[in-house]
UniProtKB/TrEMBL annotation:
<dbReference type="InterPro" id="IPR004045">
    <property type="entry name" value="Glutathione_S-Trfase_N"/>
</dbReference>
<dbReference type="InterPro" id="IPR036249">
    <property type="entry name" value="Thioredoxin-like_sf"/>
</dbReference>
<dbReference type="Pfam" id="PF13409">
    <property type="entry name" value="GST_N_2"/>
</dbReference>
<dbReference type="InterPro" id="IPR011767">
    <property type="entry name" value="GLR_AS"/>
</dbReference>
<protein>
    <submittedName>
        <fullName>Glutaredoxin family protein</fullName>
    </submittedName>
</protein>
<feature type="domain" description="GST N-terminal">
    <location>
        <begin position="1"/>
        <end position="79"/>
    </location>
</feature>
């Protein structure tokens, strides 16, 4: 899948991004991460940090964190 979202269950910022992707009709895969910040090695490998949400757009070569930035990217680029 070209769009991947790293998210934590119950994270309100992750839910906002997921809702925006759903509302825009964008297909994506969710990678659920561990609740322990120190165990989020997969997120660190792809983004250089352990916070979520992180969006990966493989087709455009984009990796980004911070929900506000991701929401703007979804609205301007993917929707």
């Amino acid at each position: 899948m070209a769009i991947r979202l790293y998210a934590l269950d119950g994270c309100p910022w992750c839910e906002k991004v997921s809702d925006a992707l759903d509302e825009a009709g964008i297909e994506y895969e969710t990678e659920w991460v561990d609740a322990l910040h120190s165990d989020r090695d997969a997120v660190k490998r792809v983004s250089g940090q352990r916070g979520v949400p992180v969006l990966i757009d493989e087709e455009r070569g984009v990796t980004m964190a911070e929900s506000a930035n991701i929401l703007e990217y979804v609205d301007r680029t993917l929707a």
